[in-house]
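To: structure subgroup
Subject: Chain for Friday's discussion

All,

I'm putting the inputs and outputs inline so they're searchable in the archive.
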Amino acid sequence: MAMNLPPGVAVRVAAARVLQAVLQGRSLKAELAAALPKIADPRDRALLEAICFSALRQRARYDAALRAWMQKPPGPKDGELRALLLAGFAQLDALDLPAHAALSATVEAARALGRTHQAGLVNALLRRAQRDGVPAADAQDAWPEWLRAQVRADWPQDAEAIFAASAVAAPTWLRVNRTRTSAAQYALRLHEAGIESQAFDELPDALRIDAPVSPLALPGFGDGDVSVQDAAAQCVADALSAPGGARVLDACVAPGGKSAHLLERDPMLHLTALDVDERRLRRVRETFDRLGVGARAHLLAADAADTAAWWNGEPFDAILLDAPCSATGIVRRQPDVLLHRRAADLAALTALQARLLDALWPLLAPGGRLLYATCSILAAENQAQVAAFLARTPGARVEALPESFGRDAGDGRQRLPGEQGMDGFFYAAFTRTG
């Protein structure tokens, strides 16, 4: 990015480039990770994130406006123009930024991107969006047809609520590191910093913030006093319910928040944590070190299903399988899921989940507990996966989870996106009887 661009223009250029890459198949998380360090001002970094997330959440609606307002909507060769227009609509519509600044900076970004000949078009379309508003659209339009049909089949009474909840920004949930402070004490620190939060009796380590906030603005974040983690993910620690000082396996640890929570809760825990990707494992180590729990974790880069390559033969008292899944419960946090997920992915994911369940079950000690969790809302990955596992696994007994984990879903519990302000999540717990 040119160094002499005004900061506001540089943010819009960065947003267009990130969005273009994501629309072409790249990961939003990866693109932002590459773009954000190039922007010095934390307020501009927050704006870049907000533009990209808002544009992707409302992508189908903004694309519909382009088709209605342009004789020839942007084609494959005009991906950068489309991305910039989506960024412009997001500023005026979802983010409700001051129109003059948003228009001026976005038009200048068109010139900075070498599209001076299209700056007038960008200006005209954004002024129309400002004047007329972007037309409303059905939230389901953002979902690919095959996935939309699957959600309707699995949740016929809840599909519209799922689509709507997945199109809006999620609140910020914090997990307070109880080895350093309490949720009540940390809420006071937030208040003193001008950040209001809400506590919940059933979530002892959680605080909810409804206004957007950067992690770096949180008191003590760099010192490990607090982490950002959705409440549905925080519930995993309670669902696993590992006894004090237990030997615990986290079979798919990255990005590490759930294991860190377990270590924060029990200073005597013996944790083995695996991830197949060494790069992701390095980030887990950084998280553990920030929180002060790294010395108590044994991290291994390994395929959890290839137990012969890493297991020493000593059984685990508890196993957490936070399985790779479609991520359909966290679309509001990862809106690019709807761009990248394919129907063929579901068969591959369910096969991988079954392979992991079958490989890990023999590693559980008699009387031990295995928690199967996903951030999916699809029955094939959740209810059906659990039913099939129970049918082929003698000695696996379901442990009923209370209603606080969500609605009944076969032998597990399902929370849908937005319920209690949380992400969509599935939990099923098993005890080994022999």
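Points worth raising on Friday:
The longest strand covers residues 364-374.
The chain has a mean pLDDT of 96.

D.
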